[in-house]
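Input structure tokens:
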């Protein structure tokens, strides 16, 4: 992990959101691919 939170552009995602973001990314990758 990068740190306590991940900065993407001007948006910061707290650690608590990383799990949800990972599931979203996984479902997005598994869907169209």
């Amino acid at each position: 992990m990068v740190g306590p939170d991940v900065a993407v552009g001007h948006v910061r995602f707290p650690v608590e959101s990383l799990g949800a973001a990972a599931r979203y990314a996984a479902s997005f990758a598994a869907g169209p691919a």
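The longest strand covers residues 5-8. The mean pLDDT is 67.
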